[in-house]
Amino acid sequence: MNIYSGVESGFIVHNNEAIYGTGITEVDAWASAEEWTDEHGTAGMICIPATGALLRHVANDGGAISWGMCGKVACTIEEEAAA
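Now predict its structure.
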């Protein structure tokens, strides 16, 4: 079962190349990102709102995925196409 099953929204931390952290709250997303970064840490990364579908996609497939934007919310490519 995906940790984000049933979750409608949350946050991602990214650097425009990959998603490094996810979480229900911004604090959770930053903490998640810290686990996946190297000695440079999260410098230059930003935290933005995300759809639950994107959180589930990252949990299943990792952060090196294609993703889009629905307004100011990060989303899956499929959600972006449907918007």
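Helices lie at 26-36, 52-61, 77-82.
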